[in-house]
Amino acid sequence: MTTPKDIPPIPIVDFGAFLHGNEEERADVARQIDDAFRNTGFVYLKNHGVEKEVVDKCFEWSKKFFALPMETKMLAPHPPGGSHHRGYSAPGVEKVSQHEYDADELKKLREIPDFKESFESGNPTDTSQPNIWPPDTSLPGLRPFLESFFTHCKTLTHSILSALSLALRVPSPGLSPTHSASLFQLRLLHYPAIHASELANNQTNDLNDDSKRIGRARRSRINAHSDFGTLTLLFQDRVGGLEIGAPDTPGLFRPAPPIEGTVLVNVGDLLARWSNDRWRSTVHRVGLPPAISRREGMVPDRYSIPFFATADMETVIDALPGCWDEAGNPKRYEPVTAWGYVQMRMAALYNS
Ligand SMILES: O=C(O)CCC(=O)C(=O)O
Ligand SMILES: [Fe+2]
């Protein structure tokens, strides 16, 4: 029987060797990321160039923001529907879903709400989805900090895209020009403290049966889902509870614990498709941290900071070079624009 131990571990790659290394070192890092994306779809990057102090500061801002009274947070409300993905969402509003577009199925999924609140911001200069900020007086300094953190994440994303372009030998200028950042999204996430008995258990691997995992618990932190863009960067605090699915055994998960000084990077559905499934978009979820047993009482607050990247809306997603050939590995998907694809996924996220 497959057990969580059989799921390949997520490798830790020294990205400093790509950012500052010679040609050979850069090629080696690109190969390691390629391997990780082929095996698990996830990689930890250390020496990624976003200073620890900056990441710590972002967590501090996040804590300050979520500690504001609900009425203040609601001064920057996420608009209803999924087309303007900015601003504050109170606990219970968003429900992630895994390839689930059927209205009845979505309704069922929403009966066990994710217990989290979030604040989304995007490219400060983007006019298609303008940012929604609380008034400056509510939390002076939040906006300039998050705008600068967005830039750090954007820069790192472009460096990773360069590494991926190198791995696949995508002709110059590579993948970067398809990611002008208008659809990038910086998310602050807060999972409030909750009694362990109320939280869906991550520690049982109930094959194909989320209802057993959830048991009598009424809450999940974030249910199993895959990300729908190209790349996600994830900074997590020390609490833990994130798990990634086994590539070939649905329902089987292993922990993706926080590792000091690293950023966790994963492939989203659009990139998996673009790579003709060379790279995996792996399901992941957040529940009870491994160190906490159900009887133990309270599970502490958890904060995480994902940054979602996707390709510009007009980009045609057609199998990348190095990911297909006429002989044994034909293209598996019809070309689609990034915009068409994102719209389909966003519509499933919100009640509209
Ligand atoms: O909070 C986490 O660690 C994961 C968040 C996540 O997977 C998401 O927002 O898509
Ligand atoms: Fe995710």
From TrEMBL:
InterPro entries: DIOX_N (IPR026992), IPNS-like_FE2OG_OXY (IPR044861), IPNS-like_sf (IPR027443), Iron_ascorbate_oxido_reductase (IPR050231), Oxoglu/Fe-dep_dioxygenase_dom (IPR005123)
GO terms for biological process, alphabetical: small molecule biosynthetic process
Domain called Fe2OG dioxygenase: residue spans: 182-311
Pfam family, one: 2OG-FeII_Oxy
Keywords: Dioxygenase, Iron, Metal-binding, Oxidoreductase
GO MF, one example: dioxygenase activity
Family that this chain belongs to: Belongs to the iron/ascorbate-dependent oxidoreductase family.
Protein name: Thymine dioxygenase
Source species of the chain: Lophiostoma macrostomum CBS 122681
